[in-house]
Design brief:
This protein has 261 residues and is an alpha/beta fold. The protein has two domains: 10-66, Arc Repressor Mutant, subunit A, CATH 1.10.10.10; 74-260, Rossmann fold. It has helices spanning 10-24, 29-36, 40-52, 68-79, 83-94, 109-116, 161-167, 193-204, 244-251; strands spanning 26-28, 56-59, 62-65, 102-105, 125-128, 143-146, 150-152, 157-159, 174-178, 181-183, 187-190, 210-213, 225-228, 235-239, 256-260. Strand 10 and strand 11 form a beta hairpin. Helix 2 packs across helix 3 and helix 5 packs across helix 6 (109-116). The longest helix is centred in the N-terminal third of the chain and has 15 residues, at 10-24. The chain is globular. The N and C termini lie far apart (54 Å).
Length: 261
């Protein structure tokens, strides 16, 4: 559908761009220019203005709707769900860290539990964009490196170009990744673009196993952004509520399932 009246003021164009992205999630500058009957240079200026307002995230040649507002608003609620399961997952996942490891850990409520449960392992370095666990940590016996970047208070994470630049200089022996969905068909997914690009880079820069930490409710769920196919992960640490049939399906794809109990 093309907008019949090409004479639109910026505020009208911005509203229509957001409406289009709400429906399609992602769009190219060329598609938006055709939709609004304006030049691509006009669209690029509009997207820059919307990005400065925190409403969209520009990508190469287009933009994606910024879903941090929705995701951040849910963070506190998510942190309160399946608390005991997440604690157990974090505790068991921590036992998979070995002396000498350099480990990537992304943001999230389950990975925060992992960070808090790392104790007594010699010569370990943890590199993370997850700030949610830090306020409760007064003494740690490993090296903790917090990535720099744009701070998202409600998600309690740092993201963005500066974070990516930091990661590009590091290679890890293991990665522990929290996700919002795990599916045989659709892989491992998260809801926000900026977090997805960080996780994908973490996985690319991991020389050893990629370990997913997720409670049983994440199985079969599909979020907006793919971060890894099933054949890119090595282990899943989950809780006793995990579907036994799903466990067998993952084992058939060479993914070890560790049940925290």
């Amino acid at each position: 559908m093309t907008i019949p009246n090409p004479v639109l003021i910026p505020a009208q164009r911005h509203e229509l761009i957001l409406k289009h992205l709400s429906a399609h999630k992602i769009s190219s500058c060329a598609t938006l220019a055709d939709y609004l009957q304006v030049s691509e240079s006009t669209i690029r200026r509009d997207l820059e203005a919307l990005e400065n307002q925190g409403l969209v995230e520009r990508t190469r040649g287009g933009a994606i709707l910024n879903e941090h507002i929705r995701a951040e608003a849910e963070y506190v609620q998510r942190a309160q769900r399946f608390i005991e399961e997440k604690r157990l997952i974090g505790k068991v996942a921590a036992t998979l860290i070995e002396p000498g490891d350099l480990v990537f850990i992304n943001s999230g409520t389950t990975t925060a539990q992992l960070i808090q449960n790392i104790h007594g392992i010699s010569n370990v370095t943890i590199i993370t964009n997850n700030t949610s666990a830090l306020s409760d940590m007064t003494d740690i016996d490993y090296e903790l490196v917090l990535l720099g970047g744009k701070y998202l208070p409600l998600s309690q994470a740092v993201v963005g170009t500066f974070t990516m630049d930091n990661l590009n200089q590091i290679y890890a022996t293991k990665a522990f990744i929290g996700v919002e969905g795990v599916s045989l068909k659709y892989g491992c997914t998260v809801s926000t673009f900026s977090e997805a690009e960080i996780i994908r880079l973490m996985i690319t820069h991991t020389q050893g196993p990629v370990i997913i930490v997720a409670d049983h409710t994440k199985w079969g769920a599909v979020s907006n952004h793919l971060i890894a196919r099933i054949d890119q992960i090595h282990k899943l640490v989950t809780d006793e509520g995990f579907d036994p049939n799903a466990r067998m399906a993952l084992l058939s794809r060479s993914v070890e399932v560790v049940i925290a109990n």
